Amino acid sequence: MSEIKSVAIAGASGSLGPHVLKALVDANFQVTVLTRSKKQGAFDASVKVVEVDFTSVESLTAALKGIDGLVSTMAAAAIENQTVLIDAAIAAGVKRFMPSEYGSCTTSPKLEALPIYAPMFKIRQYLQEKAKAGKLTWTVLACGAFLDFLFGGPMLLDYANHKAILFDEGDNRISSTSLPNVGKAIVGIFKNFEATKNKIVRSSEVILTQNKLLRIAEGVRPDIKWETSKVQTSAVLKEGLDELSAGDFSMPVIMKILKGTAFAGDIYGGAYDETDNELLGVKELTEEDLKKLVAGKLA
Which of 50, 142, 169, 174 has the fewest CB atoms within 10 Å distance of its CB? Predict the structure, then answer.
């Protein structure tokens, strides 16, 4: 029997939040949404919505009374401030906290000091200290790149213009999980309280490479001629870090750092050969599933 019956979610809007919320509701958890400001009709009527001050331990503690599990899907800018959320969770007696991480290589020790990744390491260390003191438990979900993002734009292949900028040689492997399945994996974590306690768990629907996708695309549409070029992930990463150091914090610069690490294959552990898919209830994509995804982009 799961020890988690009631779950609160911080960051229920955005890209991932709605999928996590839906998965929790569908799994019949008692769900509470923590929000800065209530908007009429923004959430399902079955969901309790509580307005909170995310900078106040007192405000959050009051909202978390009676909550068993807390999942954060906060945006990158708010990740470091999750210490307030953790302190409130402890004060309210929350049993399990899931920090906002959900990445490809966020757990690689090689990235601990790197901008973007450093706040995640700080939060995980903070959680480990609190767990060691017996104050709460934690789980980090490493889910690879969001499948929806990889196919939603020209991240790995530019399907619209039939172009491919290959990272290194195009054989770098990357694990990927769709947003709905990230939601299901989070449900799986809360349902398997002991098995997921104080650890990093991994979900991966599929391990992709650009060359594999290119071969599938050429098989699906042999009439299309692809234009390819190459770029070194180390060069992309360096460029992003240099621009960040110069004071450019724009999204294109952030994306360079993310691409230079997440798409660098096994250098930072972006592909998971061992996963917790079975425990979490995540089904892996078949070759036919992948072919359909690619075909859909070329239709």
Answer: 169
